[in-house]
What we know:
Layout: E1 4-5, E2 12-16, E3 21-24, E4 34-37, H1 42-59, H2 65-74, H3 78-86, E5 93-94, E6 112-114, H4 125-130, H5 146-159, E7 178-183, H6 191-196, E8 250-253, E9 259-262, E10 269-273, E11 276-280, E12 296-298, E13 305-307, H7 317-324, E14 330-331, H8 334-340, E15 350-360, E16 363-373, H9 385-409, H10 416-424, H11 426-438, H12 443-470, H13 480-494, H14 497-503
Antiparallel strand pairs: 1-5, 2-3, 2-4, 6-11, 7-15, 8-11, 9-10, 12-13, 12-14, 15-16
Amino acid sequence: xxxxxxxxxxxxxxxxxxxxxxxxxxxxxxxxxxxxxxxxxxxxxxxxxxxxxxxxxxxxxxxxxxxxxxxxxxxxxxxxxxxxxxxxxxxxxxxxxxxxxxxxxxxxxxxxxxxxxxxxxxxxxxxxxxxxxxxxxxxxxxxxxxxxxxxxxxxxxxxxxxxxxxxxxxxxxxxxxxxxxxxxxxxxxxxxxxxxxxxxxxxxxxxxxxxxxxxxxxxxxxxxxxxxxxxxxxxxxxxxxxxxxxxxxxxxxxxxxxxxxxxxxxxxxxxxxxxxxxxxxxxxxxxxxxxxxxxxxxxxxxxxxxxxxxxxxxxxxxxxxxxxxxxxxxxxxxxxxxxxxxxxxxxxxxxxxxxxxxxxxxxxxxxxxxxxxxxxxxxxxxxxxxxxxxxxxxxxxxxxxxxxxxxxxxxxxxxxxxxxxxxxxxxxxxxxxxxxxxxxxxxxxxxxxxxxxxxxxxxxxxxxxxxxxxxxxxxxxxxxxxxxxxxxxxxxxxxxxxxxxxxxxxxx
Length: 508
């Protein structure tokens, strides 16, 4: 297969405002008629956003917020974008000739494995040995076109979960959550602005000094991590922009045995279908990196940054505040902090698009996507709204265990209680937040809203308890024990420590 230039070839599917679907090369992304990317898999869609943001961040970064704003208002000149991308062309070659995009610099000479292994939902080696591939069968994908292979490769390297002995996780760990600043839902914003919202100014230490293996690790021999040394790559040993181009997995696609047919992923006909690849363990082991598109928490024992990961049930409003503001335990993505200090029109609204896999070790359990609100007031250092919302969230967290305890007392506890609690109180919570912001300068209004939130939760938990305890039509008599448990539930609620804190907010 001839080498494919990922900068000169039209391979990225996009959707135009008129509904037309076409494929573009990266330098065409500034076309104002393009509305969005058009991938058929949500993980490819999220990865493609990161790929294009990574290109802009690496080759066409702003020097400061003023320059960022100039491009936002005036657009990126085509000639300037072409010149910027020209610098990184050697790193964006895909094919049998090395170096090749996100593939190991050295021939791997290992056993060939089916191309479906690039997809994170594919059954693992153990599942195949034990014949436990019940729901997603082996060979569900046998051959894919080069366009899909590029995005599958990038998606895997970007999200890589634990993959068995020595098969390293992604630069952010297995299954990181990505958070992107996006314009108001359904607003007629062109694609390039959605990408540019997630590009941050670079300081002198962060700017690439040269476009070599310090940015794109496949341009030289892989820094492997075999025992006993288990070498790691720290941020100080590479350039900031390698965060977008991490390559934990040693992979080499088989370009010697391509075939003709239809791609098993996109369905398009291709004369260059790829069906196998080789892989080898002990690729790059990343330590202590902070990806600019992911929120982090601090490990309480080591102090190391840990990227927030996907979790069963997905992200909910319990997780929201830590993704849009900094607190003692969590730090939002760098791009969120950068957005807070941009001088954008106050009439424009933005939200946070969060997405990522939920992995159980190497097994993909689910793909989640969420949209969270972003409020400019969080950037105001003189406002205490953030603290009041944090107090309401703490109260929500405190309330759930007493509901769980009451349901357990009458043998009605269920694993779905937690998820239902957060999901079913989510809309009232965001309504409460909007009202709280509206009343930011009214102490009396804020107090009553906080008190109203406690009443909302009280009403919710008593309804859930009453339904579980008393709704059985076959039960003729109400068990006195259930009534006592209900009284205990109310008593426990009124003893919650944050009730006092909220009541202490009453203006004098």
